[in-house]
Amino acid sequence: MRHLANRLLGPAVLTPRRIRMAMGVAVATDAVQLLSGPLGWAFFDEVTDVVAMSLTWGILGFHPLLLPTFVLEFVPVVDMLPTWTACVAYVIWRRKRDQSAPRPVPPIINI
User: Fold this and answer.
1) Which of 16, 51, 81, 83 is the most interior residue, by most CB within 10 Å?
2) d(CA 59, CA 12)
3) CA dist., res. 54 & res. 69, Å (int)
4) Mean pLDDT for the stretch of residues 71-93
5) Are the CB atoms for 24 and 59 separated by under 8 Å?
6) Structural domain count of the chain
7) Structural domain boundaries, residue 87
8) What pLDDT digit, counting tens, does each position of 27-71 carry?
9) Measured torsion, CA atoms of residues 11, 12, 17, 19, in degrees rounded to the nearest 10
10) Mean pLDDT value across the chain
């Protein structure tokens, strides 16, 4: 059970393929929402956001910034902004920075 929780909520190791897939999902979602117009079609934008959130979460792992981006997409006219692209770009930047940072070595305690 613990392994499943870590897999669902933990960050994924970034690979070039994961980065391309996540950015592709984000750009495609923003493009579809831009082309659908400011009012969008009935529930089409919302379904697109649910799919984008699910795919991004599956590709990059959970990041807290995905939640406000998801909620922000339900605000009319704001969903015309490239919020998914900006969110995914930021998450990728943070994950790259975190994964490239050296891990601290725990101190050795002599007893």
Assistant:
1) 83
2) 7
3) 13
4) 88
5) no
6) 1
7) 26-98
8) 999 998 888 876 666 678 888 989 999 999 999 999 999 889 988
9) 0
10) 83
83 versus 38: which is more confidently predicted? Answer: 83
| 10 contacts 62 by C-beta, under 8 angstroms | yes
Token readout for 22 is: 């996540």
User: What pTM did the predictor assign?
Assistant: 0.78
Classified as helix, coil or strand, 11 is strand
- Does the structure show a pLDDT above 60 at 79? yes
Rounded CA-CA distance 99/103 in Å is 9
What is the DSSP track for 36-87? T-SS-STTHHHHHHHHHHHHHHHHHB--TTHHHHHHHTTSTTGGGS-HHHHH
Residue 1 inside a domain? The answer is: no
Q: Would residue 76 count as lying in a domain? A: yes
20 in a structural domain: no
- One-letter amino acid identity for 58? G
